[in-house]
Amino acid sequence: MPTLRPYAVKDWPHFLELDLQTAEDGLGSEATEIERATLRERWPALLDVNSGFSKAGFRRPGAQLWVLEGETGKYLGHLWLTEKDDAISCTRTLEVTTMGVVRDERGKGHGRHLMLKAEQEAKARSIELITLSVAGNNRRAREIYDELGYETVASTLRKRLRD
């Protein structure tokens, strides 16, 4: 049975690989190899500057990263949670900043397990609202969120312009 534990520095290479893979998947099928290479090159710095997270951990309060680990210690996935004040609802929220499961472990209930951990953390903090973003092309994740009772409250549209 997989276990959840807090992030440790030893997890950095696994976290970075999976988080980058998740970000690349979010680019969609129209992304060029140059765009993908640029993302790969810049991702660690973007995490550090935009989210206050680096190999050493978080520099900002209210965030935590949970690692899903198999019985043999294999890195199976992660759940990054950030406590925020929601401008729309004027209440504290727990944001699922990122959640990922390694490709060969998908479809085994790990995503659901991670989301239930997010709900448990929200309850422990007396937070009544969880928010998250999901790529439009991530059908499997969207199905899990629907099954768990999450509702779509906004959509982001984009159009890629190329010559």
Provide structural commentary.
The protein is of the alpha+beta class and about 160 residues long. The chain has a single domain, classed as Gcn5-related N-acetyltransferase (GNAT) (Aminopeptidase), CATH 3.40.630.30. The chain has 4 helices and 7 strands. It is globular, with a radius of gyration of 16 Å. The termini are far apart.
Question: What is the structure about, briefly put?
Answer:
The protein has helices at residues 12-27, 33-51, 110-124, 139-147; strands at residues 3-6, 53-54, 57-58, 63-69, 75-86, 91-101, 130-132. It has 163 residues and is α+β, with helices and mostly antiparallel strands.
Number of strands: 7
Parts with pLDDT < 50 across at least 5 consecutive residues:
none
Superfamily (CATH H level) name: Gcn5-related N-acetyltransferase (GNAT)
The major β-sheet equals: 5 strands, mixed
Number of domains: 1
Corresponding CATH architecture = 3-Layer(aba) Sandwich
Strand content: 25-35%
Q: Please state the average pLDDT score.
A: 90
- Global shape: globular
Largest sheet, spatial ordering of strands: 1-4-5-6-7
CATH class: Alpha Beta
N-to-C SSE string, H for helix and E for strand: EHHEEEEEHEH
Through-space gap between termini: 51 Å
List the helices and strands and how they pair.
Blueprint: E1 3-6, H1 12-27, H2 33-51, E2 53-54, E3 57-58, E4 63-69, E5 75-86, E6 91-101, H3 110-124, E7 130-132, H4 139-147
Helix pairs in contact: 1-2
List the defining traits of the structure above.
163 residues, single chain, 7 strands, Aminopeptidase, globular, alpha+beta
